[in-house]
Automatic annotation (TrEMBL), chains A, B, C, D, E, F:
Binds 2 manganese ions per subunit. Binds 1 Ca(2+) ion per subunit. GO terms for molecular function: metal ion binding. Ca(2+) binds at residue 58. Keywords: Calcium, Manganese, Metal-binding. Belongs to the manganese catalase family. Its cofactor is Mn(2+); Ca(2+). The lineage of its organism: Bacteria, Pseudomonadati, Pseudomonadota, Alphaproteobacteria, Acetobacterales. This is Catalase. It comes from Teichococcus deserti. Residues 234-287 are annotated as: Disordered. It comes from the Bacteria. InterPro entries: Ferritin-like, Ferritin-like_SF, Mn_catalase, Mn_catalase_dom. The keyword Manganese applies. Gene3D superfamilies: 1.20.1260.10.
Amino acid sequence: MYFHDKRLQYPVRVETPDPLFARQLQQAIGGVEGEIRVCLQYFFQAWGARGPDTRYRDMLLHTATEEIGHIEMLATAVALNLENAPLTLQETAAEAHPVVNAVLGGERPRHVVEGMLQRHLLSTGLAAMPTNADGVPFDCSHVYASGNLAADMYANVTAEATGRTLAVRLYNAAKDPGMRDMLSFLIARDTMHQQQWLAAIEEMGGAAALPIPNSFDQAQERQEFSYVYLGTGTEGVPPPEGRFTAGPSMDGRGQFSALQATPMGEAPVLGPARPGSGAQQEQIVPR
Amino acid sequence: MYFHDKRLQYPVRVETPDPLFARQLQQAIGGVEGEIRVCLQYFFQAWGARGPDTRYRDMLLHTATEEIGHIEMLATAVALNLENAPLTLQETAAEAHPVVNAVLGGERPRHVVEGMLQRHLLSTGLAAMPTNADGVPFDCSHVYASGNLAADMYANVTAEATGRTLAVRLYNAAKDPGMRDMLSFLIARDTMHQQQWLAAIEEMGGAAALPIPNSFDQAQERQEFSYVYLGTGTEGVPPPEGRFTAGPSMDGRGQFSALQATPMGEAPVLGPARPGSGAQQEQIVPR
Amino acid sequence: MYFHDKRLQYPVRVETPDPLFARQLQQAIGGVEGEIRVCLQYFFQAWGARGPDTRYRDMLLHTATEEIGHIEMLATAVALNLENAPLTLQETAAEAHPVVNAVLGGERPRHVVEGMLQRHLLSTGLAAMPTNADGVPFDCSHVYASGNLAADMYANVTAEATGRTLAVRLYNAAKDPGMRDMLSFLIARDTMHQQQWLAAIEEMGGAAALPIPNSFDQAQERQEFSYVYLGTGTEGVPPPEGRFTAGPSMDGRGQFSALQATPMGEAPVLGPARPGSGAQQEQIVPR
Amino acid sequence: MYFHDKRLQYPVRVETPDPLFARQLQQAIGGVEGEIRVCLQYFFQAWGARGPDTRYRDMLLHTATEEIGHIEMLATAVALNLENAPLTLQETAAEAHPVVNAVLGGERPRHVVEGMLQRHLLSTGLAAMPTNADGVPFDCSHVYASGNLAADMYANVTAEATGRTLAVRLYNAAKDPGMRDMLSFLIARDTMHQQQWLAAIEEMGGAAALPIPNSFDQAQERQEFSYVYLGTGTEGVPPPEGRFTAGPSMDGRGQFSALQATPMGEAPVLGPARPGSGAQQEQIVPR
Amino acid sequence: MYFHDKRLQYPVRVETPDPLFARQLQQAIGGVEGEIRVCLQYFFQAWGARGPDTRYRDMLLHTATEEIGHIEMLATAVALNLENAPLTLQETAAEAHPVVNAVLGGERPRHVVEGMLQRHLLSTGLAAMPTNADGVPFDCSHVYASGNLAADMYANVTAEATGRTLAVRLYNAAKDPGMRDMLSFLIARDTMHQQQWLAAIEEMGGAAALPIPNSFDQAQERQEFSYVYLGTGTEGVPPPEGRFTAGPSMDGRGQFSALQATPMGEAPVLGPARPGSGAQQEQIVPR
Amino acid sequence: MYFHDKRLQYPVRVETPDPLFARQLQQAIGGVEGEIRVCLQYFFQAWGARGPDTRYRDMLLHTATEEIGHIEMLATAVALNLENAPLTLQETAAEAHPVVNAVLGGERPRHVVEGMLQRHLLSTGLAAMPTNADGVPFDCSHVYASGNLAADMYANVTAEATGRTLAVRLYNAAKDPGMRDMLSFLIARDTMHQQQWLAAIEEMGGAAALPIPNSFDQAQERQEFSYVYLGTGTEGVPPPEGRFTAGPSMDGRGQFSALQATPMGEAPVLGPARPGSGAQQEQIVPR
């Protein structure tokens, strides 16, 4: 079960509120690279973890719980960035941009409102919501928890790699020193989280964990296709050469090679449509 | 641009059609672990690949193109498994299960129809569709293409790891020798695809690719938090120990340690609701 | 504005309630071939119809309003088919299937519950909901209203063609005479609705409405590609011959021909990743 | 920030695992009446709460944190109910149901697999996932946090009312004593949560909180329509009479009455389609 | 069944079309607080209403039918606000903003186009669509119809409370007198609709309707947790005090109290992964 | 199976990159009128095509394969249009718009960033993604493949009609000569694709293909309603007259007429809520 402390994990300060930056921060809350995703992903992996070694369950729970606090920090940052947002178009014109108003006849600019997520104004009363930066709600199909620990750890590395890439982009986009400070902390945590899931893969044996799942007897797969890079080009140009076309495979269980792909099957033949199946008559009985 | 050959990449045969297996195969078509996802993911990564080394773009294009053929094989397998599916409840009762009909008074069993995706009957005329095994349509937010090659390669390893886990589960669930043969081929290809994306990461420098993105100056992150595992337990039990709590970090740039998390920030203070923002009066003016 | 009469447009009777048929009927309510879709589609087309001839706006409004009544009939049919559904697994075992219970030791069958949409039991209290037959909620992106009347009329023909195909499949699946009667009415209305949208296209000039939109000066398109069927096969087999590869085009503005497709462009060249864009270092600076 | 204790808030025991009950429990995890929803809803309301009285923010945080533990309990219950689920169709036939196998020739029943969420088998390795009982992923658009405290409290009462209705249905469907015990606890908590949000509304003034938002000057609304029930029937039958058609309004600011609705506006007139807007020619220039 | 009158329920006039306001109005059409939602919600509640008192069914039908007319008014308002929207970027530059063009060299501003929903231009030909103000299509999972009348009435109060909050925000954002007039009518109707659903709850007994559902025997719930507010803080600070922590409960069936939450269960123990379940070998057999 | 050539089907050049045009082009990639949709639609129709005449399967495969190349062209166009997009707000201010900066004090304009899809900056590193122009991901429920060839051909005409309408709107919006050239090619292909599906319908018999499905015996439908236009107006104004209210029907199987709709059914009567169904007590037992 869970507990909270009213204080934030790390300080969140905003000196100059910026409603467009509030919008951009939404990606780190409700985007597929964001914190709701990793939080729920680590929780569902933990709650479903099977196997004799419960350490991974514990490890996941600690970090999942930390991630709730990251959503909280970002939601706070969004609300603070929206503090002075114009509520109406008039407000924009009348208060916020006197110089431009002069140029534009008191009618414009409205781009501050135009660049906002409209739901920040219309649906939340100037607060964060569980959507991405373009307003699309987070959808929990992105919570990857496969029941295979190694697959899940790679999913977690991916989530933290795209998450840190996003955080870096936000850092580069940020002007506000408070926001830069907050992001420098979140970037550091993403560094660690990438590292810890990779460490777990190493603990699971590294190459010995491959191919995933490693509990399937490879004698049952068509092994002549297990380590061959298939080219699908028509130009007569061979596929690119690289670590993946020659030498020992990464799992040490085969040798990489490369081959041009060709059809091994025939054109498929499906049965005709059956009476009563709602097809056209011509699909049922030959004309 | 693209070309096709009417023949399949690998033979697809079904001796004993089974509409429930048709349903299960849908997960490999339109599930998040499925082939539409990897196909579009590799295409979008290729089409957006930036950088001086165009080999990764090429490598992605070859494999993306191969994946179209995998969707085709699976869609064919679904259609073949639906060949003899009952179109109606009566048909089930009247033809398919005489023994049970005797026991059950000619009314039942209908579970063959009940276990089907209803849309296989009602929407497709007994053919595959781009949904998962529970009928949820594939949604392209699962196409990960971050603009960071290393993050994308980890996303690809993940996709093939969950994809091979799914294919193994389908193989274990399959009775039909034709289906087992087809899956033994797809499992082999997933083996290779896991390997080739890992090989690409090695080519990018392995640990040198980390933390992702490696183009961000780590001096700008709060480095005291970059390699520390934070425990969030309240029971007085320390976090689990492992490769991730001591010793050199995976990227060789730090030393792992572990620490109990504590709040470093304060309870957040948001401004009151503003007049005209649609809040309750009490949120605007103190009572 | 709108009015209602408590009575249904056409009688809805169910003699033998069947919870699986309730599930199948959901496709006609909240499926993409269903009545919510056509209802909202005709309304949004009507409400946005521009042009001097307001007859199409009126025509759409009449039929959109009729469709509300069709949703109502189907929702009533779902509720009636759920009247005697088992609320619990015990109820199934204890009451509904004594013969099977004897055979199976009082534990089974539960397939009546298993074949139901679980939300019919858990979320609605045995009533219809705006989802399809596999439980996926209707999503209004399927409301096609393009602002081009001819495109919209084809969208409407399509909706009624797939709608009538669905209704025919449901009719074939139905045992209950009341349900067959209701569906025989809905099928007839779908017949008419297909006809009326086709009649509208004829009124708009038939071939003169093509290509859609007909307000674009065809001199601005690359006309050498406007009436040529492009083959993309690699087998050396030419594309299939038919009405679409020779003779005058359907719009009378060209001659059909067929050609093997070949690349006319070059391999694309994108600029390298920019500093600060979150890419890997190798994408920014050549190694 | 947040902390966890490895122990559950309340015991979760399953004596007789049942994969269909696992499916039904999913509704309480990822359904719109479920625990992910209330958890995130209370969090986002708390994190965005504005106003001088921070008690509501605190109150929401306490309960939001409790709800994480409820998701955890339910996810554990799903995993335990899936412990003995058949992994394959053969396994069903060969092991699980010998009596039926005898009757049915060793081929059947497969309805245990057929009644499962296929993704429990194929995507999770027998664990919970953030979807509803029909496999639809939870989507965060259901997190209601409007920025108006009174509206949010009604949203919370609604969530707990539908949540307790669901929990009662699950209790009625449950056979397992451990599951009944767990649900008797969750039902009690839903009782309290309904009560506490209603108590908050009373604290906000009850009728004085109405109409929501109470910060809008009612003089600006067309008050002759503010307390009148409008009938839309065509049968000549007046609207139903009740508390809502006569007597003082609930907020004490008006008198209820009832009236037949009639059009007060005209048929709308939109401008013709503009050149270059992609309409048909006929929409742009009269024929 | 249903009928229409071509005239609008209330006049819709736009003096100065504004494409950004068109965008904002979309929230009231296809947002979760919008009119499609209440329309379909009241219809599905009516069509599934069970119980001896058919008045609630009737009451719901009258108001559901009224709501179609509100969608119509808003769709008309969107189309009118888009009348003069720029179709292209050039048009913006060339016609609409000569002063800025002078300053900016004829290149800009384009923010009028930039602030629009692009689909208003590209997909609708300048008309309304069933999406929210950020372009997300309405999804019918938001149609709450639980089969429990009291739960549904609270859902309806919530919908009208968030709906009126939205309408007030739009009123505050509106400059156009026609739009303000239309919104003053819609706000009044939302006032009434809040009132009428609350009146229905009072008719159902007010506190006697609680806890919802009131048909469940409370002796079956763990009543020691039915009226206690559980604190989940770790700071040693007790939960906030209020109407919800002391005194008689709202339903008169208990006494409120407050307590710090503690774990009553144990850490969950799941069985190991089973052979053939696609897990890693280490999850199946201890190393 | 499938092959690729690295070269594009048609040249894609961008002289003046424009991030807003990149956004608009997204509609042609991941919008419901876009190329992912037609590509997958033709593939799924081909892979599920049943009937003796395999020409339609072949015809669909050729064009489906062509459409992959169209997605590729558009994705390339998006990436090229994003080449010089500002990565940060500062960059905008500092580099891109010196004149405005002077006027606005170095703070603005940011509308170039504001008008972008934020995910182009934050999630893709300046590349295309499978979403529409407002950032909503493509969802494969839009892949229409009904199992009825005639219905599918109308669906294809519709897709190409809305697709060409979109392409025309993009052409009108485009300033860049390279973009206009690319679009003039895509418009031409849409012309042909409209034509070829209409030609297929003619081959299937034109009117003889109607009503769809033509395999249903019309004697089973309530034929008195099969060719009558039903009016639903209350104003006493008859429905509009047209080709659809008089004369022979389009399929030559009936005569059009028009009639005012009236209720033929009764008000529906549902059974009361059952004990244990989670309803309110009042719905179960009369008060």
